[in-house]
UniProtKB/TrEMBL annotation:
Its main location: membrane. GO terms for molecular function: efflux transmembrane transporter activity; porin activity. Residues 1-20 form the signal peptide. This is TolC family protein. Belongs to the outer membrane factor (OMF) (TC 1.B.17) family. InterPro entries: OMP_efflux, TolC-like. Keywords: Cell outer membrane, Membrane, Signal, Transmembrane, Transmembrane beta strand, Transport. One of its GO terms (cellular component) is cell outer membrane. It comes from the Bacteria. It is found in: Cell outer membrane. SUPFAM superfamilies: Outer membrane efflux proteins (OEP).
Amino acid sequence: MKSRIIAILLLLFAAHTSFGQMKKWTLQECVQYAVDNNLTIKQFELDLENAKIDESDAIGALIPNLNGTTTISSNTGLSFNPATNEPTTNTIFNVNANVSSNVVLFDGLRNFKRIQRARLNGIANQYRVDDIKDDIRLNVANAYLQVLSNKETLKTFRAQLAVTEQDLKRTKELVESGVSPRGDLLEIEATAANQEQQVVNGESLVLISKINLAQLLQITDYENFDIAEESFDIPISDILSNSPKVIFDKALTFRNDIKFSESNVELSEKDLEIAKGARYPTLAGFFNYNTRYSDQNNIFGNFFDQLYIFDGISYGVQVSVPIFNGWSTRNNVKRAKINVDISRVQLEQQKLELETNINQAYVDVTSFFKAYEAAEKTLEARRLAYDYARERFDVGLMNAFDFSQAQSRLDNAEADVIRTKYDYIFRLKILEFYFGIPITLN
């Protein structure tokens, strides 16, 4: 019995512990969650479903329709006897039934082209959805790296404050023993207060950046949202071995924004073909079957006999030739031609923007890496200067003000290294993304 109670308590403790653990999101989890739950994507995915329905409508227009009607009526007063075709004042009960079917045999191939257009529209909508997903992946990666950068900066601030607090404790002892002047203590206290403010600001930046990331994921439980505690080194990449022209040429083969613009050109060209099809005659076929029953036709038999006796069939074709319609067909063709030109210009503009973005990303990778290298060299120099200043301060050869200045310069150098590091990583990932490399931080 005692062992069972202990087992239950252990299970309860384990459940409580696992429940209390906050989920730590990795970059891949954030990206996938954003893609799966973004409302804009869901909206355009619904547009994609509508495009599929449009294709079904276009296919249905080629199939003969079939409609049936039945009319049941009763006439009292003056009417015509359906049996004798003479006027009568009797009450007459009638049943009329009709089945009809129509099919377009030729309409300038517009129905066939509408099917082609519907399929192109479905493809275009898929490219649009995929393009939005690409943008979301980049935005999430940027927000995620911002959280990482702010977290690393906060860790640095806290470590610096811990060192300063040790200096403050030692300086208090030296002041109380009369070895150091009180001004040194005040200077160290001011440094500690400044670093405490840096920690507070750093905590705020971490919180704000986590909220921004959570909003991209459309997660509202900000208090329980956090990313995995990871630290990433500068990734190894040979992307710069490719020229911007090579990267651009490859991007043209798979970028969804380019594919979407190309699909819009094809759609506008198909709209032009449909508009031109209105110039041709329309040939339609029809078939009708009708029958009737009247209680005045008893001499012809019962209900079913009359339906057989009085039935009839009509069928034929109808030709509609456009002669003049207020220039609407001509104007529609002109509008369609203009739309083709517009879509082609938009495609070229999209290519130009892509080439500009790739060239900018290429320059950014080079310049941000140089900035990171410069920050690393500065940090190394500041650290050596700080170590030298500490040695002088410890033996009383440097006052607290000069020492705090050396420490402040070191603090700024460490923060610059973290900032330039993640700036470079994000720019590198953008350039790789243009080359078709998925966003990862491994």
